Amino acid sequence: MVISRKGNVPNLNIHLNGTQMQSCDSYKYLGVHIDKDLNWKSHIEYITKKVSKSCGALAKIRHCVDTKTLVNVYHALVNSYVRYGIVAWGGASQSALKPLQTAINKAVRIITFAPFGNIDLNPAYENLHLLTVNKTHNFEMAKFTYKSQNELLPISVGNAFQISSINLNHGHFVRNRQRPARILCRTKTAEKSVQYGSFHLWNSIPSTIKNSESFNIFKKNYKSYLIQSYQTV
Fold this sequence. Notes:
The protein is mainly α. It folds into two domains: 15-121; 138-232, no CATH class. Helix content is 52%, strand content 9%. The protein has eleven helices and six strands. It has helices at residues 41-61, 67-83, 86-89, 94-112, 122-128, 133-149, 155-158, 188-191, 194-204, 207-210, 215-228; strands at 15-16, 19-20, 26-29, 32-35, 164-167, 172-175. The longest helix has 21 residues, at 41-61.
């Protein structure tokens, strides 16, 4: 697979041990579909189909179980797919993410028995304590950044996210847990990277949440912050 943002990419004949390798436009690696344009449309389409099938299961059981059980099923059949790898693909364009958000909205309508049509679903998301695609992306990105800031990532991953700043009083480099190093980008694709996105997201989180004394407390506080933001949308 030749990954490029340019339209005219020449065909490459690559041989491995005398065998010509077949080219492809997308490839599933560790459960995530990577496409040659890096727009993540292949993976989003894959997740959308999974969510749509799960909506059928929710519709069949919603008359037999309570809301709490439906939410548990939602987390098992819908949210588990949406969360997986979203740190990488969640920065896709809003137009690419729209079909997935529509499918998730359908699941929320089924759980709450909300009518279909142009209605505000934010109160339903808030009441069920669920997150939209964009908020799920922010949540997982924030968790990733908190681990990076507090050296909780595996060494092989953490080394790619070294956050340092100069301490003028001591004359040496120290880790800055409040403000990640700024990343300068020249392309729109780079702006969708984890490094760039985490910088802007982390700066938007209140300090009281960023200073949470443990990862579990941070998750709880930040999710509550995201849920409360439905009221301001």
